[in-house]
Amino acid sequence: MIVHIVEDDRAVADALYIVLGELGYLPAVYSDGETFLAEATVSAKDIVLLDLGLPGMSGVDVAHQLNSRASAPRIIAISGKTRAGLNRHLRDLPDMPLLRKPLSMEALAEAVA
C-alpha cells in the first residue's frame, strides 16, 4: 500500500513524508493534482492525502476524478482553510474524512490506520 501525498506546500509534504515513513508506510509526494493524476499508479488499497487548496486543479476536482474510478482509493482531505471555506469545498464530498492543518502525528496515524 502506498500513501500518496498531494500537497503543494513543500514543508508540509516533507513532514508528512517523514512521519508516514516512520510509521511504516510507503509515501509518495506530488506537488499538484495534475502531476498526481498523470504520474501516480493508484490502487484501491492505497490512501491519498489530498490538500484541498492545490494550485491549478483543486483537491476537490482530484477527489471527484478518483471517486469516479472503478477501484477508488481511500481519500483523506487535508486543509488549513477556514470552516466556511471547507464547507464550500466539501459539500459535494460529505463523507470524506478531513484533517486540519497543522496536523498532529497522532491524528495522522489514526487517520491512515
TrEMBL record:
Alphabetical list of PROSITE patterns matching this protein: RESPONSE_REGULATORY
Superkingdom of the source species: Bacteria
GO MF, one annotated term: phosphorelay response regulator activity
Residues bearing the modification 4-aspartylphosphate: D51
Record-linked InterPro entries: CheY-like_superfamily, Sig_transdc_resp-reg_receiver, WalR-like
UniProtKB keywords: DNA-binding, Phosphoprotein
A cellular-component GO term for this protein: protein-DNA complex
SUPFAM superfamilies: CheY-like
Record-linked Gene3D superfamilies: 3.40.50.2300
GO biological process: regulation of DNA-templated transcription
Protein name: Response regulator
Organism: Roseibium alexandrii (strain DSM 17067 / NCIMB 14079 / DFL-11)
